[in-house]
Amino acid sequence: MTPTITLAKGDITRESADAIVNAANSSLLGGGGVDGAIHRRGGPAILEECRKLRASQYGKGLPTGQAVATTAGELDARWVIHTVGPVWSSTEDRSELLASCYRESLRVADELGARTVAFPAISTGVYRWPMEDAARIAMETVRSATTAVEEVRFVLFDDRAYEVFARQVG
Ligand code: ADP
After folding, report:
1. Looking at domain 4-169, which CATH architecture does it have?
2. Which of 8, 47, 86, 138 would you call most buried, defined as having the most Cβ atoms within 10 angstroms of its Cβ?
3. What pLDDT, in 10s, does the model give residues 82-103?
């Protein structure tokens, strides 16, 4: 099945969903942007599980393009799915890694049984991916995914990001 795609504007940590996706970095130990906001509002339980992941199967950190779930702590969600987007490069095409973030997050969501998943615009902040291109990749990847997730909600932080994604929805 293909999920229904919806758009929302604002802070992803205010959303209610089965799973909220974090644009994490490979350390899994927090950062700025979405990552900082999720840990701030979600509370210490999320970081505690991230530390356990670092001490077990992700000793070297979570590789770019992969995804892993933890509790959502105090967020209005059951899980946070952490995924590491690629840093934008003008000399190397890393699109497949960005697509992989969306695909792998949906795969993890399926394993968990999540039916509604909220995504930020992965890699478009500190990692500098151009919004138009990131929106195209996000949308194409979700549209072509085979998943039991019923709703994929893209949560865009500002008007411009929202408009760029809205154009992709058509
Ligand atoms: P990355 O390191 O993958 O680029 P960032 O968190 O820096 O991740 O930014 C990803 C996108 O999320 C950017 O478009 C940024 O404006 C947006 N963003 C930042 N904070 C939030 C938030 N609290 N909720 C939703 N989107 C956010």
Report:
1. 3-Layer(aba) Sandwich (3.40)
2. 138
3. 999 999 999 999 999 999 999 9
Q: Tell me the mean pLDDT in the region 107-130.
A: 98
Query: Which residue's CA is the nearest one to ligand 1's atom 17?
Result: 157
Q: From the CA of 121, how far away is ligand 1's center (Å)?
A: 6
Q: Are 109 and 73 in contact (CB under 8 A)?
A: no
Q: How far apart are CA 109 and CA 117, in angstroms?
A: 8
**pTM exceeds 0.90 for this model:** yes
Contact call for residues 70 and 80 (beta carbons, < 8 A): yes
The reply to whether ligand 1 has any atom less than 6 angstroms from the CB of 33 is yes
> Is 76 a catalytic site residue?
no
